[in-house]
Amino acid sequence: MKGKGRHTAAFEIIAPERGELYSIAVMTKKFFPYTHLSFGDVEARAKKDVKYLAARAQGRTVGYIDYSFGEPAKIWGLAVLEEWRGKGIGEALFSKALDEVRKGGAGKVEIITTTDNAPALRLYAKHGFEYDRPYDRQLPGKEVVVMSKALIKTK
After folding, report:
1. How many whole angstroms separate alpha carbon 69 and alpha carbon 154?
2. Distance set, CA 18 to CA 1, 11, 47, 97 (Å)
3. How far apart, in whole angstroms, are the C-alpha atoms of residue 148 and residue 124?
């Protein structure tokens, strides 16, 4: 999937290879440090049951999303480097992941976020996600919630 964001930045959404997984591990450490995921952990998850999509622009990984199939399907994280935000990359990653879980037969998808992440909340609401429940684990100083959406199954 190739796209041009609102600010004409060309990017592509790809299934990541080992080099992109390394960049994803670095971004995970930066944006989700509480997960304590190393490169080895990210690589093992990708080989097992977590799917990753990477956004590539100008020869480097600038964002990613990770998700898993099941009932409900889960979107675990979405991150875009600060200098690449506002260019449609998060939207493209999110839309592609939603298409994949829908094609995988999920009837519902959940995503975890914090209530102070306004850009994420806007994106999820735009795609029809609603507050579902408090998340069972909290972060210091943050309210973590689960948002969900029923899907129309396609194959």
Report:
1. 14
2. 19, 19, 11, 19
3. 9
Domain presence at residue 155: no
For CA atoms 24, 67, 33, 119, give the dihedral sign: positive
Q: Partners of 108 in the beta sheet?
A: 150
pLDDT single digits (tens) 24-83: 999 999 998 888 899 999 999 999 999 999 999 999 999 999 999 989 999 999 999 999
Nearest of 97, 102, 42, 104 to residue 75 by alpha carbon: 97
User: Looking at residue 23, which CATH number applies to its domain?
Assistant: 3.40.630.30
How many domains does one find in the chain?
1
Whether the Cβ atoms of residue 113 and residue 135 lie closer than 8 Å to each other: no
The bridge status of strand 130-134 relative to strand 144-150 is antiparallel
